[in-house]
Design a protein that fits this description.
Number of helices: 8
Radius of gyration: 17 Å
Number of strands: 7
InterPro entries: Glyco_trans_2-like, Glycosyltransferase_2, Nucleotide-diphossugar_trans
Number of domains: 1
Order of helices and strands: EHEHEHEHEHEHHEH
Strand order of the largest sheet: 3-2-1-4-6-5-7
Structural class: alpha/beta
Shape: globular
Strand content: 15-25%
Helix content: 40-55%
CATH topology: Spore Coat Polysaccharide Biosynthesis Protein SpsA, Chain A
CATH architecture: Alpha-Beta Complex
CATH superfamily: Spore Coat Polysaccharide Biosynthesis Protein SpsA, Chain A
Protein name: Glycosyltransferase family 2 protein
CATH class: Alpha Beta
Organism: Pendulispora albinea
């Protein structure tokens, strides 16, 4: 099947979310041929994700989806997405999450914005999360201010989903980090290389099942703030960091 767009979804212990996730993408396909592929990255899961993937993708009408497996143990969010990107066949690439907080249709909206831009090869599209709890919105603003102070760039809603771009950006982003800094890294590479930024509002709801793998309490958020600051400092100084 020829595809022009590849959608990467990293899945780490998301067994409970997988059936509905695939079902929502199936609804977008509407039983007909599509010019996009869904790459589900089983990112070192230790739950029953593998069996659920096998069962769900065996159902008729789901040839648009395939699984790329990263063996356990989980190396990191960035490693999982990068593995999916490297396996992608599309000219246009994007990623979103498996937790159901943003609808899959937003990815197709991102691709529409990308392909309608003046220069799709040098455009970076991302969602801007709305309807979030105040504490989470403040956390995002803090990360934006920190990025501005350390990197000298305005990186609005760094972790906003989905993200979409031409394969050109993947070639420029040659040193992706293994961890949650991947969103920041691709945003930074796009800005440093003068890409046009296009954003659109997305409704950001609650997780359908389970809990966040990194923001489940303030202690986990504090750890990730420290990690992000360390990564930003590495980008600014050119020092090394764990790479996918």
């Amino acid at each position: 099947m020829s595809v022009s767009q590849s959608i990467i979804v990293p899945c780490y212990n998301e067994g409970a979310n997988i059936p509905n996730l695939i079902g929502r993408f199936e609804a977008l396909a509407n039983g007909g041929p599509v010019d996009w592929e869904l790459i589900l990255v089983n990112n070192g899961s230790v739950d029953d994700s593998a069996a659920i993937f096998e069962r769900e993708l065996a159902k008729p009408g789901r040839s648009f989806a395939r699984v790329v497996t990263v063996p356990s143990p989980n190396v990191g969010y960035g490693h999982g997405i990068t593995t999916g990107l490297r396996a992608a066949r599309g000219e246009y690439l994007g990623w979103t999450h498996a937790d159901g907080q943003t609808p899959p249709s937003d990815v197709l909206r991102a691709f529409e914005l990308l392909r309608s831009s003046a220069d799709p090869k040098r455009t970076f599209v991302k969602g801007r999360r709305r309807n979030r709890p105040v504490k989470d919105a403040l956390f995002t603003l803090g990360m934006q201010a920190t990025a501005g102070a350390i990197l000298g760039l305005n990186l609005d809603d760094i972790n906003g989903q989905p993200k979409a771009f031409h394969r050109t950006l993947l070639e420029l982003a040659s040193s992706p980090p293994v961890d949650l800094s991947l969103d920041l890294y691709f945003f930074w590479v796009a800005k440093k290389n003068g890409f046009e930024l296009r954003t659109f509002d997305v409704h950001f709801g609650d997780r359908e099942h389970g809990e966040s793998k990194w923001a489940f309490n303030w202690r986990s958020k504090a750890r990730n703030i420290a990690r992000s600051v360390k990564f930003m400092s590495a980008l600014r100084s050119g020092t090394d960091y764990p790479r996918a």
